[in-house]
Design brief:
The protein has six helices and six strands. By secondary structure, the protein is of the alpha+beta class. A six-stranded mixed sheet has the order 3-2-1-6-4-5, with helices on one face. The longest helix has 26 residues, at about 60-85.
Length: about 200
C-alpha cells in the first residue's frame, strides 16, 4: 500500500513541476561573424542553463571527425530521406509544431537589422516589396521589429535579435504523445529500426 502512495505522490510532484513555466531567452548578433546564445530558465530562476554557439573543438578531434565524416554522412542522408518519405509523416510533424506554437507565449521580441545588396537599385527594389510588411509590423505588432536598407553598394546583413518566450512543459504532453504514437511516426520508427538492422548485418 505504501508503494502505491509513494508512486502517487511522485506522480503528483512531477505533474506540479511540469506546470512550472519554462522561460527561453535567446539573442542573435550579426556583425561580421554571427553569434547566438540561448538561456533556459526554470523553477523561477533556480535552474538556469546557457547555450552558446561557436565553441571550438580540439584540433586532434576535429581532424579525426573530418576523416570519418564522409561515410557516416552518406548513410545518414540516405536514411533521413527514407524516413521523410514515410506517408503522412511531414503532415503529422507540421501539425505537431503548430500545436506546440499555440502554447508558446511571446513575452518580448525585438529586432533591428540593416540589409543591403551589391546594387543599390536592387536594394531599393527589395525594400519596395518589404515596405508593406514593415508598416504592418510597425502599426499592428506589439514588438519592436525594424528592418532598414543599406545603400553602401555591398551585400550586408547586420543587426541583432532578442526574444523571450514562455511555456509550461505540461502543455506539451498531449501534442508529444499524439505525435509519438501516431501511425506515420510508428511507421517511420519501424523503417528506421529496420534500416539500421540491415546496416549492422
Amino acid at each position: 500500500m505504501w508503494a502505491i502512495a509513494v508512486l502517487a505522490s511522485l506522480a503528483v510532484l512531477i505533474t506540479i513541476l511540469l506546470c512550472v513555466p519554462l522561460d527561453l531567452v535567446f539573442r542573435t548578433n550579426i556583425d561580421g561573424k554571427p553569434r547566438f546564445s540561448m538561456r533556459l530558465i526554470w523553477l523561477f530562476g533556480l535552474v538556469s542553463q546557457e547555450l552558446r554557439r561557436g565553441r571550438k573543438k580540439p584540433e586532434g578531434k576535429r581532424a579525426i571527425e573530418h576523416k570519418r565524416k564522409p561515410l557516416g554522412r552518406r548513410w545518414e542522408i540516405r536514411d533521413t530521406f527514407e524516413v521523410l518519405r514515410t506517408k503522412g509523416l511531414l503532415k503529422q510533424f507540421g501539425s505537431f509544431i503548430k500545436r506546440i506554437f499555440r502554447h508558446i507565449k511571446i513575452r518580448e521580441l525585438a529586432a533591428n537589422f540593416k540589409v543591403g545588396l551589391d546594387n543599390p537599385a536592387d536594394t531599393g527594389l527589395l525594400f519596395a516589396f518589404m515596405a508593406p510588411v514593415n508598416l504592418i509590423l510597425s502599426y499592428f505588432s506589439p514588438h519592436q521589429i525594424r528592418i532598414e536598407p543599406s545603400f553602401a553598394s555591398e551585400t550586408i546583413i547586420e543587426g541583432h535579435l532578442y526574444g523571450a518566450v514562455r511555456l509550461r512543459p505540461i502543455q506539451l504532453a498531449a501534442p508529444l504523445i499524439g505525435f509519438v504514437f501516431s501511425l506515420p511516426t510508428l511507421r517511420a520508427v519501424k523503417k528506421l529500426v529496420f534500416s539500421k538492422w540491415k546496416v549492422k548485418e
